Structures are given as C-alpha cells and as structure tokens.
Amino acid sequence: QGRLVESGGGSVPPGGSLRLSCVFSGLPWKTFFLSWFRQLPHNERELVSTIKIPDGTTNYAHNVKGRFTISRDGAGNTVYLQMNSLKVEDTGLYLCHARPPLIEGETWGQGTQVTVSS
Q1: pLDDT tens figures, 54-86
Q2: Cα–Cα distance between 52 and 41 in angstroms, integer?
Q3: How far from 93 is each of 9, 38, 81, CA to CA, in Å?
C-alpha cells in the first residue's frame, strides 16, 4: 500500500543535530497519520512523533518534546524530523510509518540509522 523511503541518518556526537526525511508515494488514503518510530534493541519500536496529513496536527513522545520537530514540505510528499540536542539514548533505527484513521491498513519504510556517540 504505497511506499515510504527514509534518509538522513548518520553518526553525530551528543548535542548534535540531524534532519531525517520520509518521502511517501502511492498511499491510498486522503487522510493519514505519518509517524516516526525508533527501533530499539530486541526489535521494540517506540513512537517518536506523528503528523496528520493533510491538516498538520503533530504529537511528540515526552522524551523528545522540545528537541525534535516534525513537519511537512507544504503540500508535498516529504515529511521531515528535525532532531536537535541529540542524546546517546536517541540512537536507533528510525522508521517511517503511515496508517489511516479508523480503517485498516499501514505501510512501513525500511528505516535510517541514527547513532549518537562520543
């Protein structure tokens, strides 16, 4: 059900910044939630942030609020996650996820690795 492609990961020291991108295409829904998840050891996935397309409502996990910003490129098909003041515990595989409200269906991207270490 469509495709999500992430990019922008890398290795930075604590306090650094990265901007992740998620390009979406072919999604069959007019309204959907596009989220960034962080995959932790043992394949546990933690929700980081969500933006509702197209109205732009956003939400953040408590441990990234004030440091991360999710946004969309106007009416385009790219969602960004600007990550500032990165901490070691932000390390992980960041995955893009899309799902519609109220009905079944979801799509995952392959992920982009973020490593924060000194």
Answers
A1: 999 999 999 999 999 999 999 999 999 999 999
A2: 28
A3: 9, 6, 13
14: left (phi over 0), alpha (psi -120 to 50) or beta: beta
**Tokens representing 49?**
């942030």
For the chain, what is the mean pLDDT? Answer: 95
Which structure tokens are listed for 14? 């604590």
Tokens (6 digits) for 90: 């932000």
Type of residue found at 93: L
Q: What is the largest CA-CA distance in the chain?
A: 44
DSSP state letters, 38-107: EE-GGG-EEEEEEEEETT--EEE-TTTTTTEEEEE-TTSSEEEEEE-S--GGG-EEEEEEEE-SSS---E
